[in-house]
Amino acid sequence: MQINTFGPYTLRRELARGVWLAESGGREVALKLAPAGGGAFLRAAWLAARLDHPGVVAVLDAGERDGTAYVVSEHVPGPSLAAALEAGPPPLERALAWTGQLLEALAHVHKRGVVHRDIKPSNLLLAADGGLRIADFGLACRAGPAEAHGTPAYMAPEQMRGQVDQRSDLYAAGVVLYQLLEGRKPYRGTPFEVMRLALAGEPPPLPRALARYDAVLARALAPDAGRRFQTADDFLAGLHSCSTL
After folding, report:
1. 113 and 191 housed in the same domain
2. Residue of 52, 61, 66, 118 with catalytic role
3. Which pTM was predicted?
4. Which of 47, 74, 101 is the last residue of a domain?
């Protein structure tokens, strides 16, 4: 039997696996159900609920109903950055604007003591006003030891070893920046090959017209977190300095 309600929420259509466009009280929301076991899922949701920034998709409700954990967030109807990138890299001005918005939002996230752990284009939504929003805090945690979860192409070396902090998110933001500028990820292949290349810390140089961003990318993607940008604000300042050259 098809389920069309979940508590006070009326399910309209499935947006992605386990994520529904739902309605409650005349408001459209995104309802995500835990695939199995809700402890870590809810802990991540409660961390995300601490955030209040225009660049972060807001968590509106979270809990457990009839043995199923769920989280409700505002619905952003625009496409993901991943969908936008299917048409190729955007104009430079837009790529830098989106990266700046990502870093400003991450600065807020990190100041609240939260590590996203899965920054990637499919988790970055483009709102109707053109702004970029961070979504899906399903792997969010605090800095420290953590299971090696994430998306390999965007995982910092220390994250693959089970240790994360805000610099792990900044590494992922560096991969996103490279992808926005070049139209592809810096390291490709199997998860093992990606890890080997990431540990070497030598991202392929950008085309000559974009070469002024090579240094900021090399720092963002440094395999040693101590040599990386230490905060999102530092990363943003480095990006701005490149743009004024």
Report:
1. yes
2. 118
3. 0.93
4. 74
